[in-house]
């Protein structure tokens, strides 16, 4: 579904992502984990097109999107929820969701969004800036989902959210993925969250993957060690 090949990303002369390669299969969830400053967000921004890689390529369903703008990558099937959620605070919940439907012919918000996130239906007339952090995260995920992505990319989705809501979001993502059939790529530091959703784990340090594991063989203690060093 998604294939990243030998990707290198720089900030000025600082080499932040170093020759990274990995794939995400259809219906799979891949968690990229690591401490702050190790390149997680930079990697995701390069995949969605907010940053340009200096070399390497990004492919979606066999199509090379390396030279494509962000809006073209979304139209091709990528959905993106940035770190910090970045919802529109002065638009209503409903208006925020509709903002994600630029590439969709039918501008009716699909019922499954409100089925999975009932709080958004209750608050659809409320301004996005008046929601709690957890509610804003649900809104940001909903806004990305209504473009019908083939791959949903989440950057630090649990940041600033209370544990009970984190569990709810994990359940919602598992339900949505099973029903909608998209692949999921998530950067995260909270191991308990990724253990709920991930099929594979990639640990990044200083812009390179240093450890890979699958759900059935996962060594939680080892991963935790990388996150706390």
Q: Output the strand order for the largest sheet.
A: 6-7-8-3-9-10
Shape: globular
At CATH's second level, what is the architecture? Answer: 3-Layer(aba) Sandwich
Give the percentage of residues in beta strands.
25-35%
Low-pLDDT parts are none
- The SSE string, one letter per element, is EEEHEEHEHHHHEHEHEEH
Give the termini separation: 33 Å
Give the C-level CATH assignment. Answer: Alpha Beta
User: Number of helical segments?
Assistant: 9
Largest sheet: 6 strands, mixed
**Secondary structural class:** alpha/beta
Predict the CATH topology: Rossmann fold
Return the domain count.
Answer: 1
In percent, how helical is the residue content?
Answer: 25-40%
The overall pLDDT, averaged over residues, is: 91
Radius of gyration: 17 Å
CATH superfamily: P-loop containing nucleotide triphosphate hydrolases
Tell how many strands the DSSP assignment holds: 10
Topology:
Blueprint: E1 2-11, E2 14-24, E3 29-33, H1 40-48, E4 55-60, E5 63-64, H2 70-76, E6 78-81, H3 93-98, H4 111-116, H5 118-122, H6 133-145, E7 151-155, H7 163-180, E8 183-188, H8 191-197, E9 200-205, E10 208-214, H9 220-228
Parallel strand pairs: 3-8, 3-9, 6-7, 7-8
Antiparallel strand pairs: 1-2, 1-4, 4-5, 9-10
Fold and architecture overview:
This protein starts with a strand and ends with a helix. It has one domain (2-87, 150-228): P-loop containing nucleotide triphosphate hydrolases (Rossmann fold, 3-Layer(aba) Sandwich), CATH 3.40.50. With 229 residues, it is of the alpha/beta class. The model has no long low-confidence stretch (mean pLDDT 91). It has nine helices and ten strands. The strands form two sheets. A six-stranded mixed beta sheet has the order 6-7-8-3-9-10, sandwiched between helices. A four-stranded antiparallel beta sheet has the order 2-1-4-5, with helices on one face. The longest helix has 18 residues, at 163-180. It has helices spanning 40-48, 70-76, 93-98, 111-116, 118-122, 133-145, 163-180, 191-197, 220-228; strands at 2-11, 14-24, 29-33, 55-60, 63-64, 78-81, 151-155, 183-188, 200-205, 208-214. Strand 7, helix 7 (163-180) and strand 8 form a beta-alpha-beta unit.
């Amino acid at each position: 579904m998604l294939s990243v090949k030998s990707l290198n990303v720089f900030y000025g002369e600082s080499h932040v992502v170093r020759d990274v390669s990995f794939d995400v299969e259809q219906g799979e969830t891949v968690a990229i984990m690591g401490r702050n400053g190790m390149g997680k967000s930079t990697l995701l921004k390069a995949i969605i097109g907010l940053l340009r890689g200096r070399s390497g390529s990004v492919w979606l369903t066999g199509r090379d999107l390396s030279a494509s703008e962000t809006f073209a990558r979304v139209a091709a099937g990528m959905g993106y929820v940035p770190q910090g959620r970045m919802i529109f605070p002065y638009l209503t919940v409903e208006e925020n969701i509709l903002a994600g439907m630029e590439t969709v012919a039918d501008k009716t918000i699909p019922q499954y969004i409100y089925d999975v996130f009932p709080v958004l239906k209750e608050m659809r007339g409320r301004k996005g800036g008046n929601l709690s952090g957890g509610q804003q995260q649900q809104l940001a995920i909903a806004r990305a989902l209504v473009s019908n992505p083939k791959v949903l990319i989440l950057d630090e989705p649990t940041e600033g959210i209370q544990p009970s809501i984190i569990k709810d979001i994990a359940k919602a993502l598992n339900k949505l993925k099973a029903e909608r059939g998209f692949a999921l790529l998530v950067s995260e530091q909270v191991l308990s969250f990724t253990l709920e959703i991930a099929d594979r784990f990639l640990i990044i340090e200083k812009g390179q993957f240093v450890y890979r594991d699958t759900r059935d063989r996962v060594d939680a203690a080892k991963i935790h060690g990388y996150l706390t060093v």
